[in-house]
Design brief:
The complex is a heterodimer. Chain A is built from no helices and eleven strands. Chain A has strands at 4-7, 10-13, 19-25, 31-37, 43-51, 54-57, 64-66, 76-78, 87-94, 107-108, 112-116. Chain B contains no helices and nine strands. The radius of gyration of chain B is 13 Å and the shape is globular. Chain B starts with 8 loop residues before the first strand and ends with a strand. The relative contact order of chain B is 0.34. The chains are: A mainly beta, B mainly beta. The interface between A and B is medium-sized, with 29 and 21 residues.
């Protein structure tokens, strides 16, 4: 299994450009998340989804949009890139099933490093 | 959600036990304590979690005080590969799995 895959790994954008960060998981997880991490800081939740067709805002949603048309994919859209969106973006997923063996752990991708100039 | 307080950094000698403290004095009864670590800007990695009882797995042990206001993550025999930022997170059971990351503790394991 590949786990959580993010593309691209690196991207430089100009102010005002738009782009989509892709995230796909092959673990049939219901829950998916997008975080951003600024240098020297912890991760902040942007958006999350509890299943196909259901999304909700996290702590820092402004300037971003998401969609969840399938269980596997959870793309993050930046419409008008700003320097404040320079960050490392992490996608994560977890199973929604309950049970003794379910640790509730989040599985993270390797990150997408975005620079807006 | 309850907040956590961790020391910003700590050093540990290779081969020795690393004891990482975490204060969560406002934790409520339905909140779990989770520990993750992040090695050199990779995606965070789950280590262990617990509610009331002490827990142990192949990576670490988690000791939670009886009043649940603090906990300690123990890496029994630290190796150089354990150098990472360690996050202590308190998570309600009804939070849809959302985790709120603080700044964590930067642990440096030295030879």
């Amino acid at each position: 299994n590949a786990g959580v895959t993010q593309t691209p790994k690196f991207r430089i954008l100009k102010i005002g450009q738009s782009m989509t960060l892709q995230c796909t998981q092959d673990m049939n997880h219901n829950y998916m998340y997008w975080y951003r991490q600024d240098p020297g800081m912890g991760l902040k939740l942007i958006y999350y989804s509890v299943g196909a067709g259901i999304t909700d805002k996290g702590e820092v949603p402004n300037g971003y949009n998401v969609s969840r048309s399938t269980t596997e994919d959870f793309p993050l859209r930046l419409e008008l890139a700003a320097p404040s969106q320079t960050s490392v973006y992490f996608c994560a997923s977890r199973t929604g099933t309950s049970g003794r063996k379910n640790t509730g752990e989040l599985f993270f991708g390797e990150g997408s490093r975005l620079t807006v100039l | 959600d309850a907040k956590t307080t961790q020391p910003p950094s700590m050093d540990c000698a290779e081969g020795r036990a690393a004891n990482l403290p975490c204060n969560h004095s406002t934790i409520s009864g339905n909140e779990y304590v989770y520990w993750y670590r992040q090695i050199h800007s990779q995606g965070p990695q789950y280590i262990i979690h617990g509610l009331k009882n002490n827990e142990t797995n192949e990576m670490a042990s988690l000791i939670i005080t009886e009043d649940r206001k603090s906990s300690t993550l123990i890496l029994p025999h630290a190796t150089l590969r354990d150098t990472a930022v360690y996050y202590c997170i308190v998570r309600p059971t009804d939070s849809w799995g959302k985790l709120q990351f603080g700044a964590g503790t930067q642990v440096v394991v030295t030879p």
